[in-house]
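Work Package 3 (structural annotation) set out to generate three-dimensional models for the target panel prioritized at the project kickoff. During this period the team completed the workflow that converts sequence records into discrete structure tokens, so that structures can be stored uniformly alongside our sequence database. As a representative example, we reproduce one entry of 130 residues exactly as it appears in the project archive.
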Amino acid sequence: MPVATGPFDVKLTPLPGDEREAAAFLGRLALDKQFHGDLEATSVGQMLAGRGERPESAGYVAIERVTGSLAGKSGSFMLQHSGHSSPAGQSLAINVIADSGTGELEGLSGTMTIAIAPGGAHTYSFDYSL
């Protein structure tokens, strides 16, 4: 299975919130990313995040549409995120949504991992199949 790697830039923009009492623990954000390296693309999406009473306790889900080129092939595809953190640790799953590939990326499947360096730099590793 090929692996695409590289850095990416991300911009998170808060979206209008929910006024109900429970919404104090919820956040909704717009995602804008620029991928570099083996995946030269932009993405747009939305994230819904929630937090617990402790700062290290949180979770998020997100959907983003990635448009650009992967290993020289052009098209778009959708990613689904599911992340969780607690005092015991963190987990993150990012998967290509089945049948979301377009253009030369039709039939794309795979999983992505991300890493954030102490200085805030973001990188991805994308295991995929075409």
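The mean pLDDT is 93.
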